[in-house]
Design goal:
By secondary structure, the chain is mostly helical. The longest helix is centred in the last third of the chain and has 20 residues. It is globular and about 60 Å long.
Length: 252
Amino acid sequence: MRGLEVWRLEDVQPNAEDLHSPVVSCLCHGALSDWYLGEIASCRANLDEALSLAKKLNDMNGLAFALAWAAAFGQCERNPAEVDRLASELIELSVRHHFGYWQAIGAIWRGWARSAAGDTSEGIPLIEQGISDARATGSLLSLPQFLALKAEALHLADRTSEALAAINEAQAVAERHEQLWYLSELHRLRGVFLANLGLENPQIEASFCAAVTIAREQKAISLEKRVEGTYEEYRRQIASGSGERGRLVALW
């Protein structure tokens, strides 16, 4: 917020040395922070302004940055059609300007969108190739989240054991590199996968409880609401006797 104030009040101009316009970065980081805090309208407004400013400033790398973050918001809101649209724009922009990293990120988002819409046969290879290409650049940023997207797609393809392995890898990466902002969601997804594999109740309970605790500690209101909804569904199914084995807890 202070960065935005400086830019707006002091008419700061971007420098040629900047990777992308700092104001675009401020808006995007502010947007996702708003989402975590449950301020959805403010999140949308910040992302819209980031996209608009990047275009106005003719900042193509900044535009790629904003498109990727807008896709992340679409995924947080479980909107595959919007994510697919943004991913297509990001890939087209990246091909045109030779943005190898952003092209890889676009492939990941497109893969998640296609998988979430029911086409896992196309979606999973896109996610896997995107992760491989992103890793080849040397970047580990957001890797835990991208591995979680892969896990979701694998689960939707009835490959839940593989999905669980992807979540375990994501958590290991998150803890090793202290990228803990997605940790609550990793625990929630593990609980979902364990429940759908029909494993022991204490493991499932521990995963959901860890997800709730982490979300509350991080004041991630949106993630807290999500895991509480999933946990409530799981307990309802157990109480009704329908939660013994088989596909139990919904992914979203």
